[in-house]
Amino acid sequence: MIFFSGGDGRSWIVFAQGSSGGGGGSGGRSVGLIGGGGGFWASTAPSNVGIAIAVTAMAGLALAATVVYTRRGTLKSPWSRRRRKHALLAKQWKSLFTPDGKFTDGGVKFLKKVRSGGVDPSIRVEVWPFLLGVYDVKSSREERDSIRAQKRKEYENLRKQCRRILKQSDTSIKLRETTGSCSNQDSEEFSQVLDSSGSEDVVSARLSHSTEGGTPEEEDSVHPVCNVGPQTSDSLLEGDGEKSGLTCEDASASYSDSSDSDSSGEIDSIPLFAAERTEENDLGDHAKENSSPSETESGSKFRMNEDFATWQRIIRLDAVRANAEWTIYSPSQAAVSEIKARRFAESVGLKDYDHLEPCRIFHAARLVAILEAYALYDSEIGYCQGMSDLLSPIISVMEEDHDAFWCFVGFMKKARHNFRLDEVGIRRQLSIVSKIIKCKDSHLYRHLEKLQAEDCFFVYRMVVVLFRRELSFEQTLCLWEVMWADQAAVRAEIAKSTWGRIRLKAPPTDDLLLYAIAASVLQRRKLIIEKYSSMDEIIRECNSMAGHLDVWKLLDDAHDLVVTLHDKV
């Protein structure tokens, strides 16, 4: 008797019965089949039917027990295709609140739902401020209305300062064109703008920012003279992998000469790190020791003026080059009139946009307005190329600039460390990715060591712009929403109280993105080990992932890594 389990879920038993000897030494054999879908017999003794049925039943019970045991013994991901739930829908969203606008359970069900399926596009405007920390998950409707009004006022004050700076800049340019002279008058005018009325609200906003997690005051960072952004891994394709310096003028010129980056898969739009400035910093510190407070303050304001002028120039270049992938997700913005778009562009000083459609002009002007305000709000970071990639999806969802700005501020509380010139944030994240790979796949890690790529610098771009170039627009939003839900759960300390009691033992983490990045590399382990013999080849492979990743499979694998390694990493 032989038992078979078919691929279609049916079970079969084959009986072979025989006897030998006798008069002529001949033997007889009878064969019988029992099929799970209505079996049949052929030349089988009736006495064997009962035995066959009993054996079949016992085999079926054993198979069912094996399946149940296997499923109970496996830690399944909330993003698994077999377990994936639908996105949070509008009806479900409304049912989560009490009459006074509070979450019925402190936001636990809300965050679990987003974590497993993301957010329906129709309610993203309402949901994202909770995920990004603009509103506390325990706040009431009245509290949120008050917060929104206050934050709108703070944003408008930032924009007033930007407009004053733009006006002073235009006046100075005209003056230089007529006189052919250049003086420090620009610096004095800029300082007056920063010191003018309304700046108290901006200062309070920045103080509020600095008292929360990941603040500038908590870290020994270097204030950039020319903050042109981090070195992209893409640049390694053309060089020897060494980090090279780049001046403000070089950054602006090279970026303006680069090809149009309408495709999210292009790899040439994040600039290089500024050069290490150790000696310059030492000289600067020595000069500060021998200068008066008034000279130090004046020098600081002059430097701030130079910084902002550089940020403005690069912001406008990036804004004009932003792709139009978002248009199908924001019909109202896509249908903006040409008059409105051009008027807005002129108000923020946008230039060289005549070749763009009205919707892209309007989108570019919004990028300029919000990014300039952020450069003033967080002047330690200012603006770096790559930030526009992070803001573009947000403004495609949030139609009010002040709402988009504060969502971006919430996003940047974690992402801002990607744009520090001292590289502390990037190095920390690359180190975690490296450690995940080492703990999960020692064979792959040893191969990376042979190639001197164990620092995982080949995933640099993924870290800087959070998979924005590797995933489609909608996939990016899904990944970010799940990541934000994890961070919101950690922020509200829900991870400790709720997920710790769940059998899956899959706690939310601040570093879900890094687990996803490691998962994307591990998915290609065989290719990397067998075919690639240099870091440049691995970089090309990582860049070629664009458009070929399944975000839910990626999250599924990332979750498996979290379950296995979160206590070790």
Compile the SSE list and pairings:
Elements: E1 2-5, E2 11-19, E3 28-35, H1 47-72, H2 90-95, H3 108-117, H4 124-131, H5 141-179, H6 185-195, H7 199-210, H8 248-257, H9 278-289, H10 293-321, H11 331-334, H12 338-347, H13 358-377, H14 387-397, H15 401-415, H16 424-440, H17 442-450, H18 460-465, H19 473-491, H20 494-497, H21 512-522, H22 525-531, H23 535-543, H24 551-565
Antiparallel strand pairs: 1-2, 2-3
Helix pairs in contact: 3-19, 5-6, 5-7, 5-13, 5-15, 6-10, 8-10, 10-13, 12-13, 13-14, 13-15, 14-15, 16-17, 16-21, 17-22, 21-24
Task: Characterize the structure shown.
This protein has 569 residues and is mostly helical. Helix content is 56%, strand content 4%. The protein has helices at 47-72, 90-95, 108-117, 124-131, 141-179, 185-195, 199-210, 248-257, 278-289, 293-321, 331-334, 338-347, 358-377, 387-397, 401-415, 424-440, 442-450, 460-465, 473-491, 494-497, 512-522, 525-531, 535-543, 551-565, and strands at residues 2-5, 11-19, 28-35. It has a 3-stranded antiparallel beta sheet, with helices on one face. β1 and β2 (11-19) form a beta hairpin. α5 packs antiparallel against α6 (185-195) and α10 (293-321) runs antiparallel to α13 (358-377). The two termini are 51 Å apart.
